[in-house]
Fold:
Amino acid sequence: MAMREIGDVIALDQRGTGNSLPNVGCSETLVFPPGQAITRETAITQFIELSRKCAARLTQQGVDLAGYSTNESADDIEDLRKALGAEKISLWAISYGTHLALATIKRHEKGIDRTILAGTEGPQQTLKLPSNTQKHLEHLDRMLKTDAELGKQIPSLLDLMKTVLEKVDREPVTVEITDAKTKKKTNVVLNKFILQLVTMLAFGSNERFIPAGYYAMSRGDFSVAASQWLGFINGTQT
Structure:
């Protein structure tokens, strides 16, 4: 609303998303039984299989998947500018949106006035490399060390995580929790891969889980991690 005081604000649904037609979202559903210790290989196999099914279904519906790329979306932004009759537009973007904004600048610089970018992803940075994840965990570790009280409880976040992950790698943990979806008691199995996946899901939205959750797990309480994993399985993870 503050931005509307100085100009028109337009929220763009990229082609294939939101209210754009056709919507190319995949309706195929991942199936991860909560009582089963999912492995990396099992997850990758299922992701590949469902992705291929989704691509085949959309292709059969006449969708040209080659038309859904960052460059195509950048060209759509330029077409939108022309349709609005605007000499120049300003871009406000976060995360992947910054990747798209930079592509738009590269392809249509003359039509861009200013940009506001947060959580910037450069043209070659959209892939989430393990090295970047490691750097972020090291940053969290340094932040914890600056707090006298937390530093006492968690002298080394990386060592704490390693200890917990090694423990569940040797012997997966079974946790009984109430399923928020069915309201029934459910057994959830956690192994090393599942905890790594839950940790990844916490990045950017629920990072307090990483120190707090691993500290709890080091003391035998895996309930929060189990709830996070079950929420992801049920599609309720936020």
The longest strand covers residues 112-118. The radius of gyration is 22 Å. The beta strands are 89-94, 112-118, 173-178, 185-190.
